[in-house]
């Protein structure tokens, strides 16, 4: 493989990449695809595959009559019991595994509670499968209460020594209630000593699994192209195809391209990599790109550099184009990508929050009176109501204008009713207007079980009341107006007429001596885009894409790179190295993660550690660890590598926006691995070094940092709450004690276990607003002239008020925890003790890649309440505090001690009331 420092100058000289100094991320695709062609995607090297000629298509599947198979249909399982031959894996927590009847047959059912997880295993005779490529299929369904509920089916392969990256395979996540078929492929090593079916589930959910089948479909590695370097003409060709694919997929609105699902696009990219790499010159590359695009994007024009550009014809109106709010991929996330003829989805949502305690378990009824002019496709106006039951914000009652009767030209009354959950964490309600809607709306009227629930009015003419939050774009919203009834106040929302964005065709050099013109809008005739394709896509391969194949790995990085290049919202903050994980690493995205079923991180070391005074120090040791470790021991080597080198190697494959968050992620990663694996440390105590080796333990037995219990009185008059562990039920139980205390220490060193809207409502006497959520709305590739759609929400104060709160935080506070701490910082709700938070916030937008990879990344930009930068900065302490070596050795939590000291100072400084209380 060519060295990186030799590739980059060549890249800079290529005409297609002259803007690299401005968009460094674009250049890096050359480095990434070069690396991925030669190696795997951020994983230990796969076992060597036998030499094979580069395939044009996947190999044919061996006829079924020749295949060995094992079938598990659970028909012999006793109802209510664990199926015969299956055992529950160690570490299962709050999960029940049992056979049950479903229609005419039996199925395996796994019921998991919130925070629960577990696995069930059945050994399979391995002899017939050694050295074979094996397909595992299953049917499954999953009813889940929130986004964390899911199930998965897979195979584990046992071999001499440690488990390899490709000795563990899983199907796609089972996370929908409808029964569906799932499958995966695994190559069984010739030296395999054992084989087991595995079903895993995590909650809260109820999953059912049936008809698991294991069958041989060929020899291990059959048809895979082994690793080899991508360089020279082949590199230029693949880069040109990669650039063109992303622009066509995400910005070209043709019916043929829009009809392809994710799996079809994956096949397209794999086929494209194989087709273009060996093109000997620009003319051949042009011909192969045209052949690839003919069934997908017939309007795209490709030419060789130097050939005259075609004239750009005017597009008949109305023209169809893509409208992106972020990148819409998975339905359960808030991002949306749709084709339409308007200039974007003008939408405004004006909401307020109500105390969920007032409506939990009750029949909520909301009535809205309004009128207006609503014209055109998709235009609407009405009530917006959303219940949130979990930190992810999912579940519970929901209503929006599309679910309600239309608003009329004369005064119309809309009424919506629904039962609120008994565990509702937050309620937001208000109104929403969409597209071409010009409306006057009175403030909603709310009742719970027939009794009035007070909410704020709209405000006074010209000024929206502070209790209401307005988010969205494309509308002017004002209180009052000629459309109101006499002596009544209403809200007037009217669409604005902004200049149309630039949707001229994208034109540019792709590399490899070819240039493309890609229309960003198309005319339609009889409801179809023109021109229509006359060519057809080739039939799909019989096998799913496998990570053991070179073209699949290249396709994975091409797809991921294009998503980041066109939609990642933080390139104005970060800059960009070389594998799928290194690609994500260089985003400097704290949410950025690459996962693969072959990687097992289910167990952890029986100790905790953190940097103290420039050293990696053991801070806590499990009582079950039979190892010579003590708090205060300094770690000088991990598995034989010096600590600094081990940390650097791990951090190169991880992503974080700040040093403190990278430290937290790396140290958790270095403590993790497969159950039963071992970790070896060299530690220094009192100047003497010694070796320590310990077995990793399952996550349910993992060590938890010692902290007081929520509700404890940790000093006279001072109560404590740990938001990293407390549940909503615990919060509500201790709330009266917190309100009665003279001061409270609120610990947010971690990630919240429940929605933190509830605590914030009791920490303030005035409405507080979230940070600014900026949703990217790209119209053109490469984030050219990128605009954003702003979102946010407001929290109303609730009784009882909790006074004199001191907040603890550090680099473990990420995402939702930073939303909480950001409000604390912006509204000065109390001193912040500790160290900076992670510096990454904004909803994730995960996607799947060929070969079984799954990538998490941040899909929207977060700004602080005043519009300043949050990414890479986080929330800074007002009272910095860290631990010392002596304190760790003595078992002290000096950061908590500092918070107690600050709380005591606030108690002394507080004025006494008439009864002598502070």
Main features:
918 residues; ten-stranded antiparallel beta sheet; single chain; seven-stranded antiparallel beta sheet; disordered N terminus; 15 helices
Description:
With 918 residues, the chain is of the alpha+beta class. It is 19% helix and 32% strand. It contains 15 helices and 55 strands. α1 (4-13) packs across α2 (24-38), α2 packs across α3 and α5 (262-276) packs across α7. The radius of gyration is 29 Å and the shape is globular. The termini are far apart. Mean pLDDT is 86; it is low at 1-36 and 38-68.
Shape: globular
Distance between the termini: 71 Å
Mean pLDDT across all residues, rounded? Answer: 86
Largest sheet: 10 strands, antiparallel
Oligomer: single chain
> Which residue ranges are poorly predicted, with pLDDT under 50 across at least 5 consecutive positions?
1-36, 38-68
User: Count of helices?
Assistant: 15
Give the tally of β-strands.
Answer: 55
**Approximately what portion of the residues adopt beta-strand conformation?**
25-35%
Helix content: 10-25%
Q: Strand pairing plus helix content: what structural class?
A: alpha+beta
Radius of gyration over all CA atoms, rounded: 29 Å
